[in-house]
Amino acid sequence: MSLLPLDHLPGPLPGPLPGPLPTRAPACDPTPVGCPSPTPSPSAPSTPSAPSPSSPSSPSSAARLACRLLTVLPLLLIGAWAVVDWHTVSDGAARLAAADPWWLLAGVLFTCLGWVCAACVRQGAIPERLPPGLLLASQFAAGAANHVTPASIGAHAVTLRFLQGRGVPLARAAASLALYSLVRPVAKTLVLLAFLPALPGLLRLAELMPAEQTLLLIGAGLTSGLTATALLVTAVRPLRRPVLGFVRTALTDVRLLHTRPSRILALWGGAAAAPVLQASVIASVGAALGLPLSWAQVVFAFLAASTAVGAVPAPGGIGPVDAAMVFTMAALGAPVDLATTTVIGYRVLTVWLPLLPGALVLSALIHRKVL
What we know:
Number of strands: 0
Distance between the termini: 79 Å
Mean pLDDT: 75
Largest sheet: none
């Protein structure tokens, strides 16, 4: 017998409900007055629904369309450039077909080492450790972008997007690009000066020095540019804080990087080796074609030519640097037609041969959101 007073209840206790217990109470009972009916009335106006993600006007579709356009844009630029400069490409390919294939293979090897060297310099210009594989792929893709834009804008843009994708702040990424752009010409000039005492009388420098009017024009342009930049930063207050922050970040990173021996070796060693590797490509092509110049002469010719006209904002340096290299090798005693063929072969190996694979890698990196 139970000890609880349950004998006087009006009826039996309710049994357990069939099925599982409800886990959540309904928001409202559909029977009382004033609660909306669960089924809408046929006469009630339907509210407009939000656009689905697959709608053409949705933001996600626009982003996907922009990503696809960016993916095929490098290929379209390559096709347009090939149509414009098809005569040069066909002539260079025809002449290279009869050259020594082993020397051309050596030129391809030096070209590949140039991308590794560029990746080392990029790593040496930033304190954060970057993934080596993706860094090398980004520099390979940056080479394709660099050859369709002037003044290395394409390569810097690809590298900037890569660094931001790795979580590097914008100020530090921009400071690393500035350090990279500063170290490369300084290291090239130091290598050129090192060749002068090692090879005395190799070339009469008076033949390569620009005219006095050209030097005055260059000095006036640099002075006016620095003055205009200083006045703009001083007069426009919204520019003052980001510019000062950029300069402060750049100086801090330079001090930090030069306290690490691995960064110093990657930055300055890679920057010094890059022009030597590029010149070795020219020397390999020249040896394949029978150019009557030694490796030291070709390297010196490339260093002198690229230092003299390398500041011209041409896509990948194509045009002014090529003409200066032909002139320099001719001054060293090479036939003009053979020097021209050597430069064309150099451009085929370093520009046209890796351009399509580089564009495909660039498209893949954009598609995978690495850039």
